[in-house]
Amino acid sequence: MTLQGKIHNGRVVFDNPVNLPEGTPVTVSVEPETIAIYDRLTTEQIRQRKAMFDEITALPMEGPGGFSGADHDKVLYGKPQ
Questions:
Q1: Number of domains in the chain
Q2: Is residue 10 part of a domain?
Q3: What is the 3-state secondary structure (H, E, C) of the chain?
Q4: 75 belongs to a structural domain
Q5: CA angle, 11 as apex, 10 and 17 as ends, to 5°?
Q6: Which of the two residues, 79 and 56, has the higher pLDDT score?
Q7: β-pairing, 5-8 with 11-14?
Q8: pLDDT tens-digit profile of 26-74?
Q9: Are 13 and 7 spatial neighbours (Cβ–Cβ below 8 Å)?
Q10: Which residues sit opposite 62 in a β-bridge?
Q11: What phi, psi does 12 have (nearest 5°)?
C-alpha cells in the first residue's frame, strides 16, 4: 500500500483518510525531489544565493524610460479597447 501525504507541524498528514488500526507500524520514505536544495548547500553557497536574491529584490520595479511590469500586457496584446 502506498499513501501520499505531507509533513505538517512535524507530523505526516495523509492526503486522503487512512483507516489503519492505532499502532500500525509504517515506513516513510521521502521522495528525493522534495528535499530542499538548501539541505545540500554549504554555508558559503547559501550566503552567495542570499546575496544574489537581495540584489534582485533591490532592483527597481521600473526600467529606464518608465517601462514597468504593469506595461507587460500592453506590449503583448496592445492597448485595451
A1: 1
A2: no
A3: CCCCEEEECCEEEECCCCCCCCCCCCCCCCCHHHCCHHHHCCHHHHHHHHHHHHHHHHCCCECHHHCEHHHHHHHHHCCCC
A4: no
A5: 155
A6: 56
A7: antiparallel
A8: 888 877 665 566 677 888 988 998 999 998 888 776 666 666 666 777 7
A9: yes
A10: 68
A11: -75, 125
Three-state DSSP class for 72?
helix
Whether the predicted pLDDT of 7 surpasses 80? yes
Task: Fill in the DSSP letter of residue 68.
Answer: B
Judge whether 41 lies within some domain: yes
Cα–Cα dist 45/58, whole Å: 20
Let me know if residue 15 belongs to a domain.
Answer: no
53: containing domain: 34-58
Q: Could you tell me which residues are beta bridge partners of residue 6?
A: 13
